[in-house]
Write a structure and sequence with these properties.
Chain lengths: 556, 345
């Protein structure tokens, strides 16, 4: 029999004998889990790109998020694609309590890391900071408010859901900064003659111009606000704000395993509080709804008075459910009821006052249904190869549609044979469509192509129409066959006495699919002479333009 | 008896600034101040002076680079164009190269070769909007195996997403499987190119990164219909190496295309006649618009090559596109190919 090195044998014997073991601690397993999930999250955002998206579940963490599951079910009545995975986290919560927050959640890991790195306050002060505060019940109010709004068809959980916030901030705020830094290093190295091709693998979006995300500054501000709040209150977001934590906290009350205090051993030294992540009062009756299961208290207890256990739980030493009065519940719910009419009052969702600029990605469902599904995770923005998808500002759809995807054709265009946004959408706001369905080919010939909107000319700004200068870039790039932009020749003597042939372009709306490449390529760049508006989009029967199509739908 | 006043800290001795310390401080502050004064106020011709009296010194200086001439002297100076007809793309390419004396005449062992296919749009190869990947595959292998080139690079700056265009046109996979390397354009890959003699693009952003260390350049263009300039052929293909606001080019398309003919002097100018896009160009989209031209052209004279392709691939009789005559005037070649071609069937 081979002899193990002494230290391993000792540790093994200790584990087998059930003695407390300083080496194989739960906190170490937890850190391993956190690092793994954080790495998986970064990997998912990195892989959300046209050349890397090989069928990987890049939106997997969103699909695991039970708050996405619960709120979209409340809004739509259905469980889209893989959202049922959220039940896994709920099952884990029933087993172990709210451990998602401190074992898996990448935002939680980020908060904990920032605290670990920057919070240099002395232990005595931290013990005070980590005491339970009644304000921690605020997050349950936020949860009730958002869930009530969801039930009314106004899905806003994405504003504060930690997973959604991480995806959104990574895609639109962090990745352009990171890519710019990598690109800068690359071009500096290139000047010395080095081959910098390998740097492409460090970029979130390699092989394209730097991506723009209009208004992503404010996405970053919200994200960084919650990160920086850690310096005032450790885990500020997780303790006071997080609606996902609130959902899991309210489910954790009767979990099988929990932190248990052995009162006979406890000397009331309060050392368990110095690194308590959840501010869940392990020094007295542990608040099960607040406990993240970080296991730090077990490490810090000098008397071995704390354990994470299924057996021998002291029923008196626990507060199982959140500290929330009936009045607070009713108040939050009533606010949620009022939110729907208040937010929809601008008519952006209805058909009377919809915005011409509210052009949704291909496969998007009709607008009010879209807003029941879109969680603003911005995965579609991240995967878009042409950068045409942008986070909506308040202008297009008001507060309700803030940061949902809209197309900005001055930045890019919708590529004909691309359906990536519909592939990565976790909630079905952009329904999964094939390229054939998008183009109205084969089995979809009857219903015709997906139209995003319709192109129009501003003949007062168009070079051949207004300025006697030949151009027609729009006609050249129009991707449909036959082209939706046609031209007719006109020979004129221009103001300098020269004969010029002008190909004057015009739109055939029956053929136009609203892809916007004409607007993207128009040389009159600031206010393009050809532009797309939402009218004619095929997802809505109310926003139709043509009574009938003058040509039979034909394959493109 | 006078009463002595008792100070509470009678034994206290202050720690005063010493003379040495004072001098040190004065010296450092004086030095920093004098240095700042010099940098800010010394006349502009003095070393290290930061003074910018006119505001012109602070203007950004663009240092455009120039491209070398990539041409190789042919065996027969009267031969402008080799044409291979009949058989697979590989066979046609070999025939056309044989007409000019073989690839080894133009590419020496150790050369770094850049291939410029047309990958402008996100289209499948059968639609004729992009170069036939079979030609890229054959050419990369010929270059690496037969001609023993050190490296073969494939680059283009497409109109649509670069990664998607290279993937769906099949050119990315063909190039990489054959042993070539694909360069995708990003914001840092461009630098201004200076082309003396060019009328409109004398200085223009150019996809420079893949050109670092390149010794031979080969263009491989599909033959395509084009509404405004009538045909997109070998010379128009170089458009894809430019960046910046290319969408202005249509305002004087013939001048631009003839400028392209002097911007780059390629080793070989190949026109792919395997899938000719006869109408609805240059994007295509309908296989019905594509005709099998049954020819691959390997040109030494880009103007003559395009002239032949215009008449025999796009089947357009009569006057050639203006840009070919303008390219001839700019000295890039001769429109008249009569007696300067060699067809191998």
């Amino acid at each position: 029999m081979t002899r193990l090195p002494g230290i391993f044998t000792q540790r093994l014997q200790a584990i087998l004998a059930g003695r407390p073991n300083r080496w194989l601690r739960l906190t170490r397993v937890r850190i391993l889990s956190q690092v793994t999930f954080f790495a998986l999250f970064i990997l998912a955002v990195w892989a959300t790109w046209t050349s890397r998206l090989g069928g990987f579940p890049v939106s997997g963490l969103l699909e695991l998020d039970p708050l996405v599951l619960v709120s979209t079910v409340l809004a739509t009545g259905y469980v889209y694609k893989l959202l049922g995975w959220g039940l896994i986290i709920i099952a884990i919560t029933f087993l172990f309590g709210r451990v998602f927050c401190n074992w898996m959640c990448p935002f939680g890991t980020l908060h904990q890391f920032v605290n670990w790195l920057f919070d240099r306050r002395p232990a005595a002060e931290r013990i005070g900071l980590n005491r339970y505060r009644p304000a921690q019940s605020l997050k349950y109010g936020i949860l009730i408010l958002f869930l009530m709004m969801s039930a009314m068809g106004v899905l806003q959980i994405g504003l504060l859901d930690p997973i959604v916030m991480m995806y959104r901030a990574m895609a639109t705020f962090v990745s352009p900064i990171s890519d710019a830094a990598v690109g800068g290093i690359g071009s500096a190295a290139e000047d010395t003659g080095a081959d910098t091709g390998w740097l492409d693998s460090l970029k979130f979006a390699p092989g394209v111009d730097s991506r723009l995300f209009v208004g992503s500054f404010w996405i970053g501000v919200l994200f960084l606000f919650f990160v920086l709040m850690n310096l005032w209150q450790p885990r500020f977001f997780c303790r006071f704000v997080c609606p996902l934590g609130a959902l899991l906290g309210s489910l954790a009350g009767k979990s099988l395993f929990r932190i248990n205090r052995i009162v006979e051993r406890c000397t009331d030294c309060n050392l368990c509080q110095q690194r308590c992540e959840g501010a869940s009062d392990p020094q007295s009756r542990v608040r099960q709804a607040e406990c993240f299961g970080c296991m730090n208290c077990i490490d810090d207890c000098p008397e071995n008075a704390l354990e994470f256990t299924l057996l021998r739980q002291d029923k008196k030493q626990v507060v199982p459910f959140p500290d929330l009065s009936r009045r607070q519940v009713v108040f939050a719910g009533a606010l949620g009821l009022l939110a729907a009419p208040a937010l929809r009052n601008n008519g952006r969702v209805t058909d009377e006052n919809f915005s011409a600029a509210m052009i949704r990605p291909p496969g998007s469902v009709e607008e009010s249904e879209f807003l029941e599904r879109c969680i603003k995770c911005d995965q579609c923005l991240n995967v878009c190869p042409t950068n045409v998808l942008q986070p909506a500002s308040l202008a297009e759809g008001g507060f309700e549609a803030l940061w949902t995807p809209v197309m900005n054709f001055r930045i890019g265009h919708c590529q004909l044979k691309c359906n990536l946004c519909s592939e990565v959408c976790p909630t079905g706001a952009i329904r999964r469509i094939s390229v054939a369905e998008k183009l109205g080919e084969g089995a979809y010939a009857e219903q015709g192509p997906v139209r995003l909107g319709t192109a129009f000319f501003d003949v007062g700004r168009c070079l051949p129409w207004a300025n006697q200068i030949p151009c027609v870039v729009c006609e050249e790039v129009c991707p449909v066959a036959p082209k939706a932009i046609q031209t007719f020749d006109e020979e004129v003597k221009d103001v300098f006495g020269q004969l010029v042939v002008l190909n004057k372009p015009f739109i055939v709306p029956d053929l136009c699919i609203g892809c916007g490449i004409c607007e993207a390529e128009c040389p009159v760049q600031d206010l393009p002479a050809v532009y797309i508006t939402a009218v004619g989009e095929s997802r809505s029967s109310h926003r139709k333009l043509l009574l009938r199509s003058r040509t039979p739908a034909r394959p493109i | 008896m006078t009463k002595l006043r008792q100070y509470p800290h009678a034994d206290y001795r202050g720690d005063y600034l010493s003379r040495r310390e004072l001098l040190k401080r004065a010296l450092v502050l004086g030095g920093v101040g004098a240095a700042g004064l010099y940098l800010a106020c010394a006349p502009e011709d003095r070393p290290w002076s930061r003074r910018d009296f006119t505001g012109l010194r602070g203007m950004p200086v663009e240092q455009p680079f120039r491209l070398p001439d990539f041409r190789v002297a042919p065996a027969d100076p009267d031969l402008a164009l080799g044409i291979g007809r009949g058989g697979s793309p590989r066979e046609m390419l070999l025939k056309a190269l044989d007409a000019l004396g073989g690839l080894g005449r133009f590419v020496q062992p150790g050369d770094v070769v850049l291939l410029k296919p047309n990958v402008a749009f996100d289209r499948s190869p059968n639609l004729g909007a992009t170069t036939n990947p079979a030609i890229i595959d054959t050419l990369v292998r010929l270059l690496l195996v037969d001609a023993r080139a050190a490296e073969v690079r494939v680059a283009d700056n497409p109109i649509e997403s670069p990664a998607d265009c290279f993937a769906k046109s099949g050119i990315g996979a063909a190039a990489e499987q054959a042993g070539g390397r694909v360069y995708l354009p990003d914001g840092n890959a461009f630098e201004p190119l200076y082309t003396p003699g060019a009328k409109l693009i004398e200085q223009w952003d150019f996809f420079k990164r893949p050109f670092t260390g390149v010794t031979k350049v080969i263009g491989i263009a599909p033959a395509k219909d084009h509404n405004l300039c009538h045909a997109s052929l070998g010379i128009k293909n170089w458009y894809g190496l430019l960046g910046g606001r290319r969408n202005q080019f249509h305002q004087a398309i013939h001048e631009i295309v003839s400028d392209l003919s002097i911007m780059i002097r390629p080793t070989l100018s190949i026109v792919d006649g395997t899938r000719v896009l006869m109408e609805n160009g240059p994007t295509g989209g309908d296989p019905a618009n594509v005709r099998d031209g049954n020819a691959i052209l390997v040109g030494l004279d880009p103007v003559a090559t395009d002239a032949w392709a215009y008449e025999h691939l796009l089947l357009r009789p009569g006057r050639l596109p203006d840009y070919l005559y303008m390219a001839e005037q700019k000295g890039s070649g001769l429109v008249n190919y009569a007696g300067r071609i060699k067809v191998v069937t």
